[in-house]
Amino acid sequence: MSAGSPPSVVVYGLSTEGYRVASSIAVKGSKVSIIDESAKMAISLKADIARTYPDVRSLVEDEPLLGLEPMDLAIGNASYVFFAPRIRKTGTDVKADVSAKFKDAVKVLKKGSSIVYMLPTGLGGSGENIALVEHVTGMSVDKDFSYYYLPTSIINTGQEVMIGSAKGKQDNNLAKMLYDDSRRKTSFVDLRSAEMVHVTRTISHYSGIAGIIEVCKKTAGDNVPSTELMNGAFNELYIDDMTGGLYDLRVIGMSLDGAGPLMYLVNGSIRAIEGYVKLLIDQVRSALKRNDLKASRTKVAIAWTLDSQEMRGDKIELLSLLETRVKDYIGDVERHQGPTFDLYNTDKTTVVIVCSKKDLEKVMSKNLQSDSLIVIKANPLCETMHE
Questions:
Q1: What is the mean pLDDT of residues 298-302?
Q2: Cα–Cα distance between 242 and 322 in angstroms, integer?
Q3: How far apart are CA 243 and CA 313, in angstroms?
Q4: Least-confidence region, from 148-152, 361-365, 374-378
Q5: CA quadruple 315, 375, 342, 361: dihedral positive or negative?
Q6: E strands, the chain, in order
Q7: Residues spanned by CATH 3.40.50.720 within the chain?
Q8: pTM of the entire structure?
Q9: How far apart (Å, rounded) are the C-alpha atoms in residues 376 and 316?
């Protein structure tokens, strides 16, 4: 890179989060490529394309003519490699999947370049990542390459951005690339501190959600009075909000040794969030019983608009689980994931499970006032409407 010229950047992962970073850097003048990990090809992302397509979904759907080059060639020429892949494996397979993709992203890393790791690692994960890079490339951290830890998370919105680096080393180029004019403070801290901050924020947020779920299990379906507290803390919290950090919690759990209060917090939060699906199914059954309906005369429509390109696959996994569990009880189930909500005419009573505030607005915009329609909000109280 010549003096004064912007650094060349590669983002590994055709994900929502990866594209967001790639497009914001591209409009600032850097040479940017984003890698479709499934095709092993690097897509040249110029500033005009980044301005034309606000998100990766619109880019993928429109399929514009873009410059392509082999993945390894793009990475080998990059000054910065952002690691932001789509992870769809679950359980014990997820760690091996992430490791395989990370090896792909760093195997041809050039000397003097930097890696920005955007997935959560839990505690100590950055040390494992650095050891893997050194093993694969034969280079040494801080001597031959730099490593930065910047996990993306929906709960970090509005909070100070902390970038982890060895000994808190500053990188002005990286800071300029990531500056988004949101007036959020950006700080470089040591890797251990960055890991601790993400773990603390994640556990604090989702253990609170788990507590709400468990308390509401005691009263779900009991026509609890709508107090100001409930309208704020309970009614506006949907399954879409609850499940956004399951991947993070699982990674944190895998990074902990032995049993203890911290492990109990993590595992308890995971069990509460995953167990919410059973609570929701129980409320569907209760709604049918209250209305004297038979499963064979009932259809279920699940309204959950998901981002198929996001890095984490937790919501996609939970939607599949919810659909499977409903089908065990009611055979006629359909997903509604598009921008509109359209029900087909049927002589069956339809139960609509609304999984986010956005989906509720989409459903209610249809002014559905029918005796053959029941709407259940997938929030901790499992509130039922139009019954």
A1: 92
A2: 14
A3: 10
A4: 361-365
A5: negative
A6: 9-12, 32-36, 41-44, 68-70, 80-83, 114-117, 146-149, 161-165, 186-190, 298-303, 333-336, 349-354, 373-377, 384-385
A7: 9-198
A8: 0.91
A9: 20
Spatial distance between the Cα atoms of 224 and 284, rounded to a whole number of angstroms: 17
Percent of the chain as helix, strand, coil, to the nearest 5 = 45, 15, 40
What top-level class would CATH report for the domain 222-385?
alpha beta
pLDDT for residue 372: 76
Distances (CA, A) of 375 to 64, 199, 288, 318: 40, 36, 12, 20
Cβ–Cβ < 8 Å for 220, 380: yes
- Kindly report, residue by residue over 168-207, the tens digit of the pLDDT: 889 989 988 887 766 667 889 999 999 999 999 999 999 9
- With beta carbons less than 8 A apart as the criterion, state whether 184 and 161 touch: yes
CB 27 within 8 A of CB 47: yes
Q: What is the pLDDT of residue 158?
A: 64
CATH 3.40.50.1260 assigned to 9-198? no
Q: Which helix (H) or strand (E) holds 138?
A: none
Burial track 338-348 (b if 16+ CB lie within 10 A, e otherwise): eeebebeeeee
Q: How confident is the model at residue 363 (pLDDT cuts 50, 70, 90)?
A: confident
3-state SS class at 385: strand
Name residue, tokens 């059954």. Answer: 285
